[in-house]
Amino acid sequence: MNLALPVLVPVLPALGAAAILAVGKKAPGLARPLAIVPVAVSAVLALVVAIQLGTGQTLDAATRLTPTGGPDIALALHLDGYSSLISVLVGLVATCVQVYSTAYLKQDPRYPSYAALVSLFTAAMLLVVYSGDLIVLLVGWEVMGVCSYFLIGHHWETEDARSASLKAFLVTKLGDVPFLFGLFLLGADAGSFRITDVLAAATEGRLGHPTLIALLLLAGVAGKSAQFPLHTWLPDAMAGPTPVSALIHAATMVAAGIYLVARLLPVFLLSGAALVVLAVMAAVTMIGSALCALAQDDLKRVLAYSTVGQLGYMAGALASGDREASVFHLVSHGAFKALLFLAAGVVIHAAHTNSISAMSRMPGLRKRVPDAYWTMGIALVALIGLPPFSGFFSKEAVLTAAEHAANGDALTNGLGPASAVPEAAGWIVLISAALTALLTAAYATRLFLVAFHSPAGAAAAAPQVLPADDRATVVADHEADAPYSPELDEADPATAEPPAMRWPLWVLAVPTMAFGVTSLRTDWLPELLDGGSLRPSGVTAVTGTALAVVGMLAAYGAWRSATARLGPGRPAPVAAGRVPEQAGAPAVEVIVADPGRILLGPLFGPARHGFGIDRLYHVLFVRPVVGAARLVRFLDREVIETYVRGSGAGVNLLGRAVRLAQTGNAQTYLSALLAGVVLLTVLVAV
Prior knowledge:
It is a single chain. With 686 residues, the chain is mainly alpha-helical. The chain contains 28 helices and two strands. Helix 11 (253-263) packs antiparallel against helix 15 (323-351), helix 13 (272-293) packs antiparallel against helix 14 (299-319) and helix 14 (299-319) runs parallel beside helix 19.
């Protein structure tokens, strides 16, 4: 293979970003082709590289960048089935996002900088995927963090976007500090930062601190891939433009942490304690995020919590020792989650609101956006995990991996002994993943029914016509401080969605429906990865599907019950063309038939607010830090500056005193000199 091809894959989007920044303001018409063409060509090259590399093959190339006095840093390339598969996913999603953004942000004056950052974001993720050196990988890792800060804060004139971008940056950096120490310790133990050398050292048992290294790395993974307890930044990141959410959630930033653990899984297999920690982290993340998703009214926040939970699935597969299942679900999820966010953008464009309660009162919304309606339905079925969609096969692969780990027969596929995975880790993942499958089906069904099929779709909410008991419940459904992450409206709701916002949906619908079948034969997807089986076991397939169906039926039953409570006293129809306001939390936008409250009961309020984790962090960390900052400011301004000002004032006073003595009279100077001589003489004599 010509090395120029894989080198160009991350380089082209980076060059495109530089070109957009150079000419975007002077020639705005060039920004769109410069945004699309380099990324699209990079995606094609990634596919060509994957085809040329083939299955079961690897490619390593490196050149030393600089000596360090210890392990050298090399500009290294490492290609295998995992890097090939994920690079194609990144290229596909990034291309769809760039095309979609040309219409979604058509009137945005900052589009050139936005497009440049998306291209740079894509280049950074491709660098992470292709890098064969941990330090070079770290460069891409950190560039993604910086790009996410600017992209989430794209609408910096709004307080939500500013606070969300700062929160995302600080929370991920909190995880990156121990992550950096983990990389350094790993390089020191292995004697090299080259990934191939690190894996060889792990296989040969030459790592001196595997548990410490694994736990330090997991801190960075928790931040970047939004796992408990560093998951809180991701729901708030919905204040950024919707295409950015699709890119972050599907193919770049949050996938980077999972990919790193998959790449370094032999290191983690040396520490059973680290695998148990990873399993617990995944379990809490899966269940907690699914409960939160069931209580959200903001469409994008529902999808954000869904992403957090699906990342928990991937982390759970890794804790079970099966990186094949984890990456399979990563790619499958990348396709249908990008589709969900881009379809959500079309719906938001038409409805001019993120609130699914407001959407439920818009007559004919699903007829207004038929492409988004059908593709979102396809993606939600894949998210639920029903056959024959890709989500079914990848979810069942995770459950199968957990089942084998729980039985002491982990599917490590030759990366380590099956006994390296504690059975406890398998049981934790299996039970939590099964419960999450039920909850996922419930919140996905709730989202689809409330947004598109609510009986209140032709009526406005009017609590005054309801019975007194029901009226209190309905009004309380949306507190004034309910979590809500609006973004600035980018389009006229009276204008139909352009083709650039529609055809990417159908492009992504293809892998959403068909990618899963590639796992059925061992000479297809499994041979590209580690060669193990990705077929779901009969027990998990039946159990997982049954739980998903139960979740759907429970949500449907709760929805029917909620709608029935409205009784015959229906409110008056919405005025034609009415568009609910988007600028703020929908304190008056009331879900008329929300199954989430019925299903969650007393957990509804806590789940809506993320079980108070943000508030807890505010009390434990934000307030002390702010208090310390105020103390430092006080000491700086009132104490240190007081001394500085005092010393200046003292010198000034001394100068004034000396100036008073400078009269210009020679007789005075001689008299003072004589007095001084006399005084010195007396002192000496005495």
